[in-house]
Amino acid sequence: MLSTQNPDTRSSEVTYWFKAAEVSAFPEDGGACVKYQDQQIAVFNFTRRNEWYACQNMCPHKQQMILARGLVGDQCGEPKVACPFHKKTFSLITGENLNGECYEIQTYPVKVEDGFVYIGISE
C-alpha cells in the first residue's frame, strides 16, 4: 500500500526516504515526534482526511519542541497544526503561519508503504 500526503509536497526534491516508524506508532488524528540525525520531526496521522504530514517539531514562536503534541485540523480546507502552548497555527502543506505572523515551519513529504511511515529528506 502506498499513501502519500497532499500532492503539493516537494517529493521531487527528496534525496532520501527516512523510515520513521510503523504506522501504529502514530495516534489517529494526532502526532508523534521522531528524530532524524539532529532534527526532531513531528509526524501527523490526519485520519479524518486520510493523509499524513510532517514538519519540524520546534514551534518558532517560543523555540519549544512541542508541535508533535499540537492539535490538527483545517482552516478553509488547509490542513494545519496548532501549537498547544500559544495556539500559533501553521499550514502542514507550506509551513506558513496562518495567524498572519512572520513565523514559518519546515514541512516534509511523507509516504506510507507496507505499514511504515517514511519522511522525505533533502540533503
Q: Specify the number of helices.
A: 0
End-to-end distance: 26 Å
Low-pLDDT sequence parts: none
Overall number of strands: 13
Strand sequence of the main sheet, in spatial order? 1-12-13-2
Keywords: 2Fe-2S, Heme, Iron, Iron-sulfur, Metal-binding, Nitrate assimilation, Oxidoreductase
Protein name: Nitrite reductase small subunit NirD
GO biological process, one term: nitrate assimilation
InterPro entries: NasD-like, Rieske-like_NirD, Rieske_2Fe-2S, Rieske_2Fe-2S_sf
Structure description:
This protein has 123 residues and is an all-beta fold. It is built from no helices and 13 strands. The protein has a four-stranded antiparallel beta sheet, with no helix packed on it. A hairpin with a 4-residue loop joins β6 and β7. The protein is globular and about 35 Å long. 33% of the residues are buried.
